[in-house]
Amino acid sequence: MDDVIRVFLVDDQELVRAGFTMLVDSQADMRVVGQAGDGGEAVEKIQVTACDVVLMDVRMPRLDGVEATRRLQSLPEAPKVIVLTTFDLDEYAFAAIKAGAAGFLLKNTPPADLLSAIRQVHSGDAVVSPSTTKRLLEHFAGALPDTETERPDLAELTAREREVLVEVARGLSNTEIAKLFTLSEATVKTHIGRILAKTGLRDRVALVVLGYETGLVRPTK
């Protein structure tokens, strides 16, 4: 059926894949359409297997989840990738988000939350909270610039859009940004949509990364 979310599983542990398969296939609106034991196998199979969302382990042999995510995002019809990791502050997860992953979850995430994340990502939302991304970025602050780095696409932003981008990067929600600037939430969503369009980014998590990488927001110590 057209409304069924097609999920592809990538993990080097067969038992983990079996557990995810049982969970996903128990839902009426989603099904597992393929599996792979490492990133290389995943990239090969996904090129010939139509899927919507990939559950991607980051630490795997042959080709890790970071590089696999990067290669998948270069495909004409790239699937959304949810990165799964054992550790909260994980350099692999940070790198995978930069590579284009739309989500970041711990492997011990409750089943209901994982299923919700799959639905959210499929609908176009990011499932890692900006505050979690913020903690990741601040943890790896040494790799971030000390001074502001201008990008050509940032020059296209209006003054208000730039202000909204900064607050998104600081981890504020749409509601908080609306209160800060005395705007409606609908207006904030419109601003964020325009920022995404002008920067060519996929979601607000990518905007958080952009804010830190360009120095618009500085890590706190």
UniProtKB/TrEMBL annotation:
GO terms for biological process: phosphorelay signal transduction system; regulation of DNA-templated transcription. The modification 4-aspartylphosphate is found at D57. It comes from the Bacteria. GO terms for molecular function: DNA binding. InterPro entries: CheY-like_superfamily (IPR011006), NreC/VraR/RcsB-like_REC (IPR058245), Sig_transdc_resp-reg_C-effctor (IPR016032), Sig_transdc_resp-reg_receiver (IPR001789), Tscrpt_reg_LuxR_C (IPR000792), WalR-like (IPR039420). Keywords: DNA-binding, Phosphoprotein, Transcription, Transcription regulation. The keyword rRNA-binding does not apply. Residues 6-122 form the Response regulatory domain. SUPFAM superfamilies: C-terminal effector domain of the bipartite response regulators, CheY-like. Residues 150-215 form the HTH luxR-type domain. PANTHER family: TRANSCRIPTIONAL REGULATORY PROTEIN NARL-RELATED, TWO-COMPONENT RESPONSE REGULATOR. This is LuxR family two component transcriptional regulator. It comes from Kribbella rubisoli. The lineage of its organism: Bacteria, Bacillati, Actinomycetota, Actinomycetes, Propionibacteriales.
